[in-house]
Amino acid sequence: MYHTIRVAAYEPDPLHGPWREEMRVLRLGEDLHAELTRMHAEANKGSARPDRLPVRRLNSLLRAMAPGVMATGRNAGTDGGLPWLYAREAVPPQVLAPVIGTWAAGMYREDDDTEGADLEDRLRSEDPAEAVRLPDWETEAVDLTETVTSPGGTAEPAARLYGLLPEWVAFRLAARTFRTGGSTLHFRVESSGNGARLVSWPPQRYESRGRTWYYSACLSITVHTVPFAPRFRVHVSAQVRRWATRLEVRPHQLGGTTVLLDAPLPWPGGPDRSHRLMVNTLGYDRRAKQPAWRHHSPAPLVPELDIVRNYPDPTELFTHPERWINGCGDVAAGIVHHPSNGPHQVGPGLMPRERADLDAWVEEGLRPLLTRVPDLTRVTRSNTPSLLPRSGAGREPGVREAQLALQRRAALARALDGRPLEVEVLWQSPQTRAALLAQLPKLIGLPAGERAGAAGDDTWRWEGEGVEIRVHARPAGPLADALPVSRERGRPRAVRLAEAVEGRCRLVADRSAPRPGGASLVIAEIAGKERFAAVPDSDPKHALRIAWARQGRLSQFVNLPDDTDGSLEHRARWTWLDAFRQLGAISPPAHRVGAGIPGDLQYAALWLVRHTRKGPTRYPAHRLVAVRVRPGEGPGAIEGWDAERAEWVPYPKLLLMLSRAEGPVAEPAEEPVAEEPAEGSGEGVAAARPGVERHRQRETERQIRALLFQLRDRPTLLLADAANLRQCWPALRNGALARDLLGFGTEPAQRHTVYGDGLRTVLVRDANAREEVAEWYAHDARGRVGFAEGVWGTADPESRVFASTASTPHTVAKLPKGLMKLVPTAQGRTAPGKTAWNPGQLEVTVLCCLSEKALADSGRGGDTPDRPAEWATLTHQLRYHGDYPPLARPLPLHLARLAGQYVLPLAGPAR
């Protein structure tokens, strides 16, 4: 058993002091900014924000083609006085002028680019009457460890470091060679929206099934804060980057895939090649009916700067990706693989040994400027709640499953509360129908069902110990067909989809009706979403969920046997288990934390559903979901918050209510504008229009305060995912947190006991798409590395931040911990084909508990204070349930998040 875990995170070394770098800084300046703004307004007369320069493509072009440029500042397109370029050395005008001129010409249509092309000459001109002056470079000493400490004790880096520091770290590491197993890897820098990446280049090769598959090591570098930590952190996570060599999709199915371009620099007298790979997006142009560069890709502009070399045409790259990844001349391009583009024989992920080797290489490269954060040690041996023991020595085979079946049946009886359960199974394959009928009695410990209908009526019935279930099986027919969505491009996409949904709802109403007198559930077999990819929005899943919810029926879906991995028996089992969850027939096992947890504790969880116009119904929605769990109670053990009536309702009723509820829903015109990413927190706060954002925030916080009042009757553990909720509860930002205080709006934060004498609040956070929580691996004094589950923390007994790690799936646990994929050994030539995985770390922050100070402030100084580690342990144990592998989040939060699947607003007249 490992007793220590190490996280791949680094912080400024206090023994080293500030990390100052002499940088050259360039601002657009008033003259150039004004001229570019005028040109942009003229070229885009219908633009809603003509004053906001679209500099993202220009920034990408400069980072890749201008030697010495390290990073670009944010919001320079709106303010010419802000820092725009950070460089090791000034970029000469003979480089800067053609890059800016080429970009400016690209703002105009092909038949109207005269003025844009003329800008380069004006930037070079010495005639004061014609010249547009390039601003002068300035020298600035930038402290890459500049920090401000929040009132709550959280160290926050200066705003520009979120973009600048990852680039600087990436270039520092890219200057070094990674050596392992007698081989070497060389890295190139890839800029990303949240930081920077290192990609080993050229790619590695793996021969399998008569083909060559290409892959690289990839290190993501991001800057983050940790609640109450005295120093901010740099996270470095390791993955396998796979490259596509054959796109098994048609061009019109190409939604948008990343392409990295490797090209020489076209400037004489400098380095031959940049240390960067240029980031582009390859998609499908529906007007031109062919692949095209999209999303501010700089690739279309590069041939204008370098007329000597051949650069990949989008159609040619789509057709022959392997030719370009091996290089045509001295230009190469790699299409990043995505599962939607077909299978890949290189498996994702790295095992702990290889991850540890990369981590040690990073640590050596960052010393002495940044130092590794201290290792974490176990805070408890009570890793799991009271789960049934696995079958093993001294236990009869099947005993555990029989006991679980009894528990499920009892939970189902409590949830149904004497009502019969009517289930309609709509099948497309007889195998699926048979598997569903076979798995149900096994899961709840009842004998095989009996036919209950007349001849030809495929109805089955089970009854026993408070449970009565009737299953009606019939072919799905046209209900599972693709939605016939109108292709009229003159009307909003959301409105056309809403009309198709209404049509499917009418078809459902004609072909089925709710059976009165009990709980009602539909299980439908439909094709996988890949089958509907050729026609956008044609997947009928959400339309069917809406249709059945209008009839008061819950819905669960299972894919066709050919459209998914895993055995049919396994998938049928999970279909029923998720159906039981929707019925509320689930509760957390008894914890094993200790006497510090009140016996009558209830759990409450908050989840914010945020749909944009890319959401399931192409219509934006914004809704707070709250779930309450009272272990050991009757049918109402799992409930949801009805904000309109200000009351708790059974979980199944919450789901149906969410499918019908309107809002708060933001109008499409008020959605966030996709421009430059917001500066500051590095925590992914979306930039919506200020008025809409303030309204959302006030409404969400009002609902939270209202439901907290409803939880005052007993001790409560409030669970929230900080990354999910902080957009509309800004007091959950790391820099706004303070121990044992809750803040709302602009009011000063108050003692949390104001909202309930027995209230405790725990925030959780995972890595998410921004790598907010660092990767980890277990290790010991003898140099062994591996996996470990448990709750981890520092030696400080007053610490409020912990790590929760769960066990690994059995498929990964069987792989050797020392498996090397990046440089396979002779004994492991098939190693690249293995799928590796490291369980994610769930950060657990005990924000509010009854600490000694909190008790004293509330006049209860004689009471025994809480131990934060116990509440972190309880949160960790809530990830475990006998029917599931460890959950990504505690069970109450898991229930709240999945309830969001029923938030399906429709646009236009269909609403």
UniProtKB/TrEMBL annotation:
Domain pPIWI-RE module N-terminal: 9-416
Organism field: Streptomyces stephensoniae
Domain pPIWI-RE RNaseH stretches: 603-905
Pfam family, one: pPIWI_RE_X
Biased composition, class Acidic residues, residue ranges: 668-678
Full protein name: DUF3962 domain-containing protein
Domain Prokaryotic pPIWI-RE MID: 461-591
Span list, region Disordered: 666-697
Entry superkingdom: Bacteria
